[in-house]
Write a structure and sequence with these properties.
eight-stranded parallel β-barrel; TIM Barrel
Length: 240
């Protein structure tokens, strides 16, 4: 099964397209979420998308900010990101649970995320995917379900470094997604972290491959399972 990955384009840096193509080929990447600046695609965005398309990779415009639970910033970004018809989809990474004012406003902010996904989906014909942390399904199942209904697809950021733990923490979220009838990816992390059980950064590529294979095998028969995704490209490529 082809895998997906997040690509965060760093301002002022030049993309090594040869390394990107080699990684895509070696790691069976079938889709990439490519970050798009607030002002819209720049020259490096175009180079990245062209390199990916040259290898048959489906490309989504990636964007988000925890503040996008209110106002029209998400729609403004969407219109700029998709104006040049570069992308096959839109991928939102908003994560209001990372806000400093999250505590005490949880349901309000999740309702804002639902509205944002609804607004973005209503302004584009492209499929819209949203990143969600699976623990939200345990703590706020109704709000979680309503956000899932607004999206075309979900990426569950099930950040653990063993397949059994990934499957365990995502179980409730996967059940809701399946009931709603939307596809979902299982995302894992390779960024260095103070919580080593949440990332493969300290485990290495062999362990990552072993655990991804176990996740894919365990979920192969699940109708809603749309594959795995790795966060992110730069750290995945550098993984020992």
């Amino acid at each position: 099964m082809a895998r997906a990955m997040w690509i965060w384009m760093q301002a002022g840096t030049t993309l090594d397209t040869a390394a990107l193509v080699a990684h895509v080929d070696a790691q069976r990447v079938g889709e990439a979420f490519v970050s798009v600046p607030w002002t819209g695609p720049d020259a490096e965005t175009h180079r990245c998308v062209a390199a990916l398309r040259g290898r048959g990779v489906r490309v989504a415009a990636l964007g988000g900010d925890p503040a996008w639970t209110s106002g029209s910033d998400a729609v403004t970004w969407l219109q700029r990101a998709t104006a040049s018809f570069l992308f096959d989809a839109v991928h939102l990474d908003i994560e209001p649970w990372t806000r400093r004012d999250w505590a005490g406003r949880e349901r309000e902010l999740l309702a804002g995320l639902e509205r944002t996904v609804k607004d973005v989906a209503g302004r584009t014909a492209l499929p819209v995917e949203v990143d969600l942390s699976p623990w939200l399904a345990d703590a706020y199942p109704d709000e979680f379900g309503r956000i899932v209904r607004r999206a075309d697809r979900v990426a569950l950021m099930a950040y653990r470094d063993r397949a059994a733990d990934v499957l365990a923490i995502s179980a409730a979220a996967r059940a809701i997604v399946a009931r709603v009838g939307k596809p979902c990816r299982i995302g894992v992390d390779v960024l260095p972290s103070e919580a080593p059980a949440e990332t493969f950064a300290d485990d290495g590529r062999a362990v990552l491959e072993r655990e991804l294979a176990a996740i894919e095998a365990a979920l192969a028969g699940a109708r809603a399972f749309a594959g795995t995704a790795i966060h992110d490209y730069d750290h995945w490529r550098a993984l020992a």
